[in-house]
Write a structure and sequence with these properties.
By secondary structure, this protein is α/β, with parallel strands linked by helices. The chain contains 17 helices and 15 strands. Helix 11 packs across helix 14. The radius of gyration is 21 Å and the shape is globular. It binds beta-D-fucopyranose.
Length: 481
């Protein structure tokens, strides 16, 4: 772990709104929605209960050395058993909407065939509980927990997986289509391809580098087929996808650095957003066309399926990227460690001028504004209403002797990022912001090391303790007119 990427180099300046949640509420545009976001595998636990099948992450977390603290998610935050208490906490908080994911292996344990009744019933209960609490459900169909039998055959490297995913979407649409307010087909296909299939930081742990790119196309095709499946069963809610966006800058203003920055922007952002919103892959730079060959050769009919009009577009924003020429000097990436990265001719340079989260991610709300600006320009005229479907920060929260958690840095992070979202940019119809996340949870390859929650969870007792950020947000939401 290098100091430059992980060390807290600067203190995050406290927000002017830290002591004035009511004043902050006055700056919120009327009708702007506030939610919290979670993912099934990170919170549910109960991985072997009620007929749930194993997922690619069940397998991955059991492999030695994969998870930073050696932990696993088999209990996680025990949300499967405590969902009522958790919805109660959300109701008290006063959010408008809750984004969660439907565990594919809980609903369709083997990745094909009819549904597992107990899985359907769990989400039935959760959705009904939310509606009774006046909270609108936003359901993500794929937040990375692919049924193991499908992974075994090749996962997203296989075209057929897109059709299997559409079958799952159909089951989910039939079961919950009358009550889900918004559907997200896939969460961050970028992260799945880069971390899962190229660099091996996430499940399934493949290190295919550029040979992984077809997994991006198959996810996008799965998205398009899932949109069709949901519409075919007449779901009443809106349908979208969630991509993570990182504005990319060259560390130096010379041709070579600019060229690598362009390649990274393509890999991280454009190959996922352009097909969905523009119906085409980006123009690949001449010198790197060979690397992108699988995407250049795709069937144009696929792009028609991928680019169907959406009701909304989900954007996750966490941080910007700065690209520097040369192989990385260590194996650290923003999400974990991998030697595979050393084969690249460029690397992510640390943004030393910004304060950092415990994960080492730069805190820079102005790049949320830049993200919105890039979308306004790149997708002018075709961008549906946008929701920030994730944004948040991990900090090493300290518990005071009286048991309270004063996470003032998280409050400042949220105030700064929410302020940027309230401000918005011309050309983007931004409707809401979902905070990552409700509970301290199991943070993929970081295990329990990174705490992102508004609520602390004691790993031994599973007791939930709302932090200062929870109480601050509650005051903001109560003061809304
Ligand atoms: C996003 C993921 C989410 C969580 C946050 C911190 O990339 O979608 O599950 O891990 O990062």
């Amino acid at each position: 772990m290098s100091d430059s990427t992980r060390g807290i180099t600067r203190q995050h300046a406290p927000s002017e709104w830290l002591h004035d949640p009511e004043g902050f509420a006055e700056t919120m545009p009327r009708g702007f929605e506030i939610g919290v976001s979670t993912a099934a595998f990170q919170i549910e636990g109960a991985v072997r209960e009620d007929g749930r099948g194993p997922s690619t992450w069940d397998d991955f977390m059991g492999q030695p050395g994969r998870i930073a603290d050696g932990s696993n998610a088999s209990i996680a935050t025990d949300h499967y058993h405590r969902y009522r208490e958790d919805v109660g906490l959300m109701k008290e908080l006063g959010i408008d909407s809750y984004r969660f994911s439907l565990g594919w292996p809980r609903i369709q344990p083997g990745g094909s065939g009819g549904p597992n009744r107990a899985g359907i019933q769990f989400y039935d209960r959760l959705i009904d509980e939310l509606l009774a609490a006046g909270i609108k459900p936003m359901a993500t169909l794929f937040h990375w927990d692919m049924p193991e039998p499908l992974q075994h055959k090749g996962g997203w490297m296989l075209r057929d997986t897109a059709s299997r995913f559409a079958d799952f979407a159909l089951l989910a649409g039939e079961a919950f289509g009358d009550r889900v307010d918004k559907w997200v087909t896939i969460n961050e296909p970028t992260t799945v391809t880069l971390n899962g299939y190229a660099l091996g930081i996430h499940a399934p742990g493949a290190t295919l580098m550029f040979d992984s790119l077809i997994s991006a196309h198959h996810q996008l095709l799965g998205h398009g087929l899932a949109v069709q499946a949901l519409r075919s069963v007449g779901v009443t809610g809106g349908i979208g996808i969630t991509n993570v966006h990182s504005p990319v800058h060259p560390a130096k203003d010379n041709m070579k650095t600019r060229a690598y920055a362009e390649v990274f922007d393509i890999i991280h952002n454009r190959i996922f957003a352009d097909p969905v919103l523009l119906g085409q892959y980006p123009k690949f730079p001449f010198l790197s066309r060979k690397l992108f060959k699988p995407l250049i050769e795709v069937d144009p009919a696929d792009l028609k399926i991928i680019s169907q009009p959406l009701d909304f577009y989900g954007l996750n924003y966490y941080m910007p990227s700065r690209i520097r020429v040369g192989a990385p000097s260590d194996d650290m990436t923003p999400d974990g460690i991998t030697v595979a990265i050393r084969s690249l001719p460029f690397h992510l340079a640390p943004l030393l001028e910004f304060p950092k989260t415990a994960f080492g991610w730069p805190i820079a709300a102005e790049f949320l504004t830049e993200t919105l600006r890039e979308y306004a320009t790149r997708y002018e005229g075709v961008l549906p209403p946008v929701y920030i479907t994730e944004g948040g920060a991990s900090f090493n929260d300290a518990v005071s002797p009286d048991g309270s958690i004063d996470d003032a840095d998280r409050v400042s992070y949220l105030a700064d990022h929410l302020a940027a979202a309230f401000e918005g940019v011309p050309g983007v119809d931004l409707r809401g912001y979902y905070i990552w996340t409700l509970l301290d949870n199991w943070e993929w390859a970081a295990g329990f090391e990174q705490r992102f929650g508004l609520i602390r969870v004691d790993a031994d007792t599973q007791d939930r303790t709302p932090k200062r950020s929870y109480h601050w947000l509650q005051k903001v939401l109560r003061a809304r007119t």
